[in-house]
Structures are given as C-alpha cells and as structure tokens.
Write a structure and sequence with these properties.
Helices cover about 25% and strands about 25% of the residues. With about 525 residues, it is of the alpha+beta class. The chain is globular, with a radius of gyration of 24 Å.
Amino acid sequence: MLRITNFRIPVIDETPLEKMAARRLGLPVESIDEVYIARRAIDARRKNNISFVYSLHVKINSAEGAALARLGNDKDVVRIVETLPEPVVFGTKRLEHPPVVVGAGPAGLLAALVLAQHGYRPLLLERGRDVDRRAQDVRRFWQTGQFDPVSNVQFGEGGAGTFSDGKLTTRVNDHRMQQVLTVLVEAGAPPEIKYQHKPHVGTDLLRQVVKNIRQRIIELGGIVSFESTVTDITVHDGRLTGLVINGTHSIPCQTALFGPGHSARDTYHMLYNRGVAIEAKPFAIGVRIEHPQELIDRAQYGLLAGHSNLGAADYALVYHDKTSGRTAYSFCMCPGGMVVAGASEEGGVVTNGMSLHARASGIANSALVVNVNPTDCGEHPLSGIEFQRRYERLAFELGGRNYFAPVQRVGDFLGGKSGNTQFATEPTYGPGVTAADLRQCLPEFVTNTLNQALPEFGRKIRGFDQPDARMTGVETRTSAPVRIVRNDNFVSVTTQGFYPIGEGAGYAGGIMSAALDGVNGAVALMNEYKPG
C-alpha cells in the first residue's frame, strides 16, 4: 500500500479521489484498487484558494516499487505496511470479584467495553439515568425549569459530552486512537470521524452511539446499573475492598476504574475523606458568546462561506494579558449550535454548548474563559469546587432564581452598562434569560481579562466584538478543579485497586482524550490481573 501526504485539492473540485490519486502517482485510474482517506484537514489561510489537505492510503494492482521509482525522491509518497493492533498482555494476579467501572461517561464506557471484550465481565455503575430517560429529563428542564439533580446535562449515561457538539479532537498522541474511533463508528458514529482533522458526532447521533456501546457491553457479559451512586468506599490496609451504593447497599470490590466526571463534587469529598490522594489543579471560568454563524463563516472562508463542502466554520482564539499573566481563550466552540443549561446542583446556573450533527442552527457559540489557578481558590485541595459553586449561585440569583441565565450585550459589557436586549441573534439558552451585568457573577480578574480580550478577538475575526453579540453566564465546568493522583500504572498512589480515569479524575479534556484514558486504564488493569 502507498501513502500520499500533503495532497492538496481545492474544496470546489469534485473530481473522484481515485482519479486524483492516479494522476498524482502517474498511473492510469484502472491501476487503483482502493483509496482510503487517512486524514483530511482544511487549509483556509488563503481565502481565494481554500483547499482540503489529504493523507491517502492507496492500493494499486501494479508493482508498487515501479510506481515509487517513477516518482523519484518524492517524500510525500511512501510505501507502508498495515500493522495489527497491539495485543494485551494479561497479568497473573487473580480477581476475587469482577472489576467495577464507576461512571458511564466516555472513560467509563470505553473502559467497560474493553474489559468485557477480554472476558472480565465488568459491573458498570452510573449515578444518572439511561440516555433516553435522561434526554426527557433534560428537555423538561430546558423547557420548564424543573431541575432534576439525578438526571441532567452532567449526570447520566454518556456523561456531559452527550449534550455537547460531540467533538473528538484531542492533542493526545496515542496509538489506540484508531481503536477508539473504530468503536464509535461500529456503534453508529459517522465513518468520516476516522479521518477528519476536526471530527464531531453531534449530540443527536451521539445518544444512539452511547446506547449501542452499552448494549455491546451487556452482550459480552457485563452488567450496567443506572441510578447507582457510589456514596462510600471501604479500604483496608491501603487496599480497596468494597463500595457502598446509594448509601444502603455494599458490594465487595477488589478493583475499580473510577471515572466520576468533573461535576461529581460529592464523590470528590467522599474520596478525600477516605484518604484517597487528591490535589488541586487549574481550570477556567467565563461566559458563552453567540454570533450569527454566517459572520464566522465569512471571517474564516471569505467568498466560499456557506459552500456545501465546507460546512459551518469554527474558530480558536487566545489572548495573553502580559500585565496580569492571565489568558482568555475560546473553549468548546459549537458551530451551528446552541447554548444549554448544564446545572448539576440545585440553586446554580451553569452554561454549556451543544450542536446537532448537521450544525444547522445558524448560530455559532463558544465559551470564552479565563484561567483559574489553585492559588485563586484557597489552600484546601477541594477549594476549587467552592470557587465554581460561588459563581454558579451568583448567576442563579442574578438570573431570577428560576434557572434563567444572566445575559449581556458585548457592547454593554465593554461600556459598563446592562439592560439592553437587542441581540444579533435570539437567545438559545432555555429555560430563559435575564438581562444583567455579568460582572456581578464573575471574578474581577475574569471580567478584566475578557474586557481586554474581546477587542483583540475582534481584530482577529471581524465582527466578533460587535456590540449586539450576546454573552451568557456562567461557564464553570471547563475541566475538573481537582486531580485524583495516580501512578504510572493508573493506580491511586494511596489506594491499591483504585484506578482514577478520565476527565473527572483530572487526566483528560474532552470526549476523545477521556475515552483513550479509559481504554488505557482498562489495559493497565488487565496487565495486572488475569481474566476469569
């Protein structure tokens, strides 16, 4: 098989890839057996010549050596050999009880699936409800303001990512990346996620993917239990020996892969009180900002904005304040999406962003957040939780104590005013919004940094700081404010048999990195213990 890299094709070119690959290799199209897209990115640096940049794997029915010889020293065409997945090396220790996986987010689902695939018959515990009932609960909250602390955007099957854009981008370079993507595609995700530079699934498709993975775990001998919160653990001589479920039911447990999610604040407190090592880590808070999607499309794609081959444009923005040392940046950008209510506790307002697979709402939204250091919060390892909670409660009060979110025009925010509700787009947040001064529900260092960053972002994306763009508060759940400390074998440094995994444990930053961490945690467990 041959690999072609750095293969540029104008986005308006509809020529079949087989024909283009043949031309690139100097072969007749009849010589091409198959063409696989290994990777595809968009190069929009020159607005008058936007291109797709491909890496292609090409099977030909003629001699590969002769084809390479004709190309001379072309570094962008090489011969490759398909590699088999790395086999799992099982440990020798005996398991007295099946491994338990706590949390059915990306880390927990993939960890449980990998264990089930290798005969470990795991028990998967999820504090929330299954994704179908969860979707009903969330929809009711968004429409009526009836909040359910058991089932919401943060808690339930699939984790917080189930109500998101479903982005699968990650900075993690892991050899199991394709394994995870293959699992998602087999469960119903679009095949193109295996090669897109910025793949996404969309919340509408992701819900079915989650259900299919759960069903596969069960088919392979695993057990999945919903509304099952781990309220306590038992430890003897530094080793995990049991779990308490919902405060009433105890089960023996020798090994547990713990993926609690970044909003499981009660779980963090319980673990800390049981002596599990936890440390504070940085996170970020801020607001959600919304613009007409066409404004972002024009800024990124120029005259080709709206072209069917490009879809809705995204962006990534960063501003460093040299005086304060603070950084403001966009986070979880959702093209063609909406702002949603993401509270997980009564009496708090939390915002998040979400998109369907089509990204066709006509509105772009993104978090604009500022970094928070552990020293900003206090000396206790769990001080970051109270820091988040304080501003969520202030937003709740400012919005009217009914889960309405406080909103403000960018122009008013920059001008020190509030109250104007003439926005560039209709608010997408439900249950509703209340005009307010966002400075009253955010730390001063956050609003000061955003005040400096917005004009700078407007210079990078024309119209980004337009006066009638809307900001909604508050965005607090960018990442976990703590890390459950583990060693290189994924085991807690204080509690044997306890494996912290995923975003809530402080080792990931999104769906893909959390899923990878769950897979690697499961492999670490299997390296230690034999199945059966």
